[in-house]
Amino acid sequence: MKTSAEWNCERDALLDALRDFARVMKRRPFDNEQGLRGVSAFALYWFVRKTAPSVVFEVGVWRGFSTWLIEQAAPSAEIHCFDPLFMLQHLIPRRRIGKTYRSPRARYSIEDFSCAPIRELLAGRAGALAFFDDHQNKLPRLLQCKASGIKQVVFDDNMSAPYTHRTLEHERAADPALLDGEIETYETFPALWPVDFRYGDLHLKEAGMGFPVERELRDIYRDRNWHSYVTYVRLR
Ligand SMILES: C[S@@+](CC[C@H](N)C(=O)[O-])C[C@H]1O[C@@H](n2cnc3c(N)ncnc32)[C@H](O)[C@@H]1O
Known about the structure:
Elements: H1 4-9, H2 11-25, H3 38-51, E1 55-59, H4 65-73, E2 78-82, H5 85-88, H6 94-97, E3 106-109, H7 118-122, E4 128-132, H8 138-148, E5 152-155, H9 168-174, E6 183-188, E7 195-199, E8 202-206, H10 218-222, E9 231-235
Parallel strand pairs: 1-2, 1-4, 2-3, 4-5
Antiparallel strand pairs: 5-9, 6-9, 7-8
């Protein structure tokens, strides 16, 4: 499990990548509201860049901002997007959803990830990554990845506070040994700036790593409270 001290050792690399991300974000298709924002959007960019996957399975797409982020971080990866929304979208007034980003490079599916032919889509290729932002329980998703031969997984919303689904943090709290046999690496992206966010009963508070608020980082800094504990897992 990556510690704060270990994240601190990567401070320079994080700041370089954050500046690069700020330049990428100037080309964003829209300002995302309900999905990844601020440092959490950077977290997905960071993990995808680090792992350089050949294939990405994105589960929980909504307006497509995370698809766009994945494309920026892995320009040559094949992308498979899963969301039941694609089946219902035509029933929802366009103004309710707002702008969307759908990529000509991605394959879109209404199947649940657990029912999709992931092994066939992988076709024996190594270096696949799955990203889950679907608000479903995370342990079954992790086991579905294992069964399909995917070893690298990124989860959004992996918080320890009670939320819409059971996170890996909830599993760890209930049984600290449960995940040890499955997981080789577990890295929860840190807050780069202080976080103090209340939403209903949810209260997120983080001290942050004290990053500078440079002029070009201000848009990301402004969204710092949308911290969603983006977590990278590498299975054994
Ligand atoms: C928070 S939104 C995703 C936001 C998006 N990743 C972003 O960053 O902009 C959650 C999405 O999960 C989708 N969802 C719900 N159940 C799902 C399932 N079983 N499989 C895939 N997506 C699901 C919802 O339709 C919704 O679009």
